[in-house]
Amino acid sequence: MCRGWESNPRLLHHKSRANHLATLLHALWTASTFTPALWPRGLCLVINCVQCLLIEGTAFSTPVCPPAWTAIDSSQTCIRPYYQQMTNWTDARHLCRTESADLVVILDQEMNDFLIGQVNSTMIPYWIGLNKNSEGHFAWLDGEEMVGYANWAAQLNNQSENAGCGQIYTDFEAGSRSWFPADCTQQAGYICEKLADDGKEGSGTFVPQNCSKNCAGPSKACNKITGVCFHGCISGYEGDTCESVCRVGRFGPNCAQRCSFNCAGPDNTCDSRTGNCLYGCGDGYQGGACTTECEPFTYGTNCSQHCSPNCAGDKTCAVRDGRCVWGCAVGYQGLTCDMECGPRTYGANCCENSSAHCGGPSKACHFKTGHCLSGCDPGYTGPTCTTECAPYTFGSNCSQHCNSNCGGDKTCHFRTGRCLWGCDAGYHGYTCDMKCEPYTYGERCSKNCSENCVDSGVPCHYRTGRCFWGCDAGFTGITCEFECWPYTYGANCSKECSSHCGGPNQTCAPTNGHCVSGCVKGFTGDRCDTGKPSLTVPHHVASWSSGRRSAFSHTDSGFEP
């Protein structure tokens, strides 16, 4: 340890900055031909594992501060409270640094009491140089945790999780000013502190050639003792003395800016000075810093791909993956609408299904219009096969007509052609397209031709049952269902019994004309047609014979007109 470190009050203020001071002064020492005895005003340097600076009692005799700043003898610094401009902790520190200062660091009771005396005339809180480090512990501006003196308020219950910065405020329970943790975004006054001058020109500031080349500002000036750059760091560097290269993912002056999240590669890495992405841009972005989205209708890596012409609406797509913003045009599907609809789908985004009545085994339809590619199933018509056949038509594309032999209103089933009301007489079959088989006729061909028809292969008409070749001997009528009337016989009953038949009725057999009761006197033969009649026919016989002719005559020949 440096001799006198703990006992010299003028060094207590700089204790937390020891590493910065030692590093800076060690560099000066190694470059100098001076010996410790030759340093002005008894400045003594001791370098060891702790590295510290011992400023003897006569180091700074009279602190010199700019106008509006107040000198503190014990710390050889100048302070200035700001209460007219309320701000958050981060902005307060920035405002102090524009004055070549920083938020005040309080390392002893004497300095704390002095500050309270400076701000007691106002009731507002004031930011000081305390905030939580990465471990969540309060530390002064150099990042080292607090050791030694502290003046926290007695009651610190119910602290907010966001209370990460320190301020001086009134402790109403204690009736005095104390330190309080507060939300860093809270609005408060602030107290700035900077090193005092010893009265010599330029003694409070290093000349530019001794400051870091990474200091910003026209003069690249820095604090004479600590090396803190007054105007921050140039692009690519950070830290009080601007010797640290930006962390990964940061760039610009003081490394205050983040690399674009659109940078490709690990951790969105970019150039620490310019912010240009080192590995190019992620999908959807372009430009050195990858902050410019792809132009309309382009997407992907370096915006080298074009939106699909099958995108719907204004044809735009997402800049990263080419996904069509308004879905797909009719007939297409997929994220980028580059696939035609499947065999049985069509329309916008392929949301429509082809008709179940499309023809062919695949039921395929046109991917845009939905028109069936293989025609329609039986019973349907139209481009999309959604319309049933009109009455009296049926089959594939409704190209067939119901059979004219259908019964009733002549309608048939729109798919199969089956006659809905059966068949007209003389026809049978599903569609009534077959005539009755030989020897049958009528509705459903349910009747048989008469056994009395003359048989020559097709004995009767398939619709009416009319015997084509007339009736067998002894029968008459269209279908030969009637036996001959009395006094007639033969085929179609076209012949009359002989007037010479005997018996009271003079009847004869209908098939062959044989007289049933024999012959009248004078005649012989089966039909009594052999003999010689008497010259005179009895009156009653002649008149009866004439009457029966008229009474039993048949005008029906047995054939249809």
Mean pLDDT: 79
Runs with pLDDT <50, length 5+? 1-60, 199-207, 535-561
Note the beta-strand portion: 15-25%
| Structural class computed from helices and strand pairing | mainly beta
Q: What is the CATH class of one domain?
A: Alpha Beta
| Tally of DSSP β-strands | 38
CATH topology of one domain: Mannose-Binding Protein A, Chain A
Number of helices: 5
Question: What is the CATH superfamily label of one domain?
Answer: Mannose-Binding Protein A, subunit A
Largest sheet: 8 strands, mixed
Distance between the termini: 149 Å
Which term fits the overall shape?
rod-shaped
* CATH architecture level-2 label of one domain: Roll
Alpha-carbon Rg, integer: 63 Å
Helical coverage, percent range? under 10%
Could you characterize what this model shows?
This is Multiple epidermal growth factor-like domains 10. GO terms for molecular function: scavenger receptor activity. The termini are far apart. This protein has 561 residues and is mainly beta. The strands form 16 sheets. Strands 3, 4, 5, 6, 7, 8, 9 and 10 form an eight-stranded mixed sheet that branches. It has a two-stranded antiparallel ribbon with strand order 1-2. Strands 11-12 form a two-stranded antiparallel sheet. Among the domains are: 9-54, no CATH class; 70-203, Roll (Mannose-Binding Protein A, Chain A). The chain is rod-shaped and about 195 Å long. It has five helices and 38 strands.
Give a concise summary.
With 561 residues, the protein is mainly beta. Among the domains are: 9-54, no CATH class; 70-203, Mannose-Binding Protein A, subunit A (Mannose-Binding Protein A, Chain A, Roll), CATH 3.10.100.
